[in-house]
Amino acid sequence: MPQFLALFLCALFLIADTATAKQVPDAELRTLLTQTVNESSSFYDRFDAEVWLVDMSGRLKRYIKDPEQRLELLKRVHAEAKRAEIEPELVMSLIHVESAFKRFAISSVGAQGLMQVMPFWKNEIGRPDDNLTNIETNLRYGCTILKHYIDKEKGNLIRALGRYNGSLGKVKYPAKVLRFWQDYWFINHQ
After folding, report:
1. Burial bucket for residue 13 (CB in 10 Å: 0-12, 13-18, 19+)
2. DSSP 8-state code for residue 125
3. Which end of the chain is more exposed for a tag (fewer CB within 10 A), N or C?
4. Measuring CA to CA, how many Å separate 39 from each of 27, 33, 43, 51, 63?
5. Cβ atoms 89, 184 nearer than 8 A
6. End-to-end distance of the chain based on CA atoms, in angstroms?
7. pLDDT tier, 42 (very low <50, low <70, confident <90, very high otherwise)
8. pLDDT(126) > 70
């Protein structure tokens, strides 16, 4: 059984916090976002990325028909996920749930782009002109936010995904992301 699935099943039984939590500015996260958004391009291992690109491209084809657009998105997801030290497949799962790979998606509460980032973060870090529908910008913000919540929750993906979605204490959203990860985006690295 994949490690994340075991974590998911254990977390379902251990979640005691049933109150919802809205995504609000967090000083520590503001500092982290400021730092990472201002960094130059990240470096990633080319061999691993190429192997990953071949596999993921086939999976993503039904959502993004143009091969150049598909590969460009996959390269950026891989680079930003690795920069943030999170699994690229988890990011793909989150994007799948959040926007179905629609770059210009806007939610009913105003979240924008592939990873559905709330626009208040731009002002919080002093970058009001950032475009959250820009793929690289959206992934940089989204991966940084997700990593922060994973760290804050000490690796508990149920709680971290709940924080990301503003539904801390509820399992519907985290379960959906983890189900996409297990059923569609998971790569066995053994």
Report:
1. exposed
2. T
3. C
4. 19, 10, 11, 26, 30
5. no
6. 13
7. very low
8. yes
Query: pTM for this one?
Result: 0.78
pLDDT value at position 20? Answer: 36
pLDDT per residue over 24-38, tens digit each? 566 776 665 565 445
Cβ neighbours around 29 below 10 Å, total: 21
Task: Give me the domains of the chain, ranges plus CATH numbers.
Answer: 3-14+27-185 (1.10.530)
Residue 181 and residue 33 in contact, taking contact as beta carbons nearer than 8 Å: no
Written as six digits, the tokens of 52 are: 């990953």
Supply the Cα-derived Rg of the chain in whole angstroms.
16
Dist. CA 173–CA 146, nearest whole Å: 14
CA distances (Å), origin 184, targets 8, 32, 56, 190: 16, 30, 10, 17
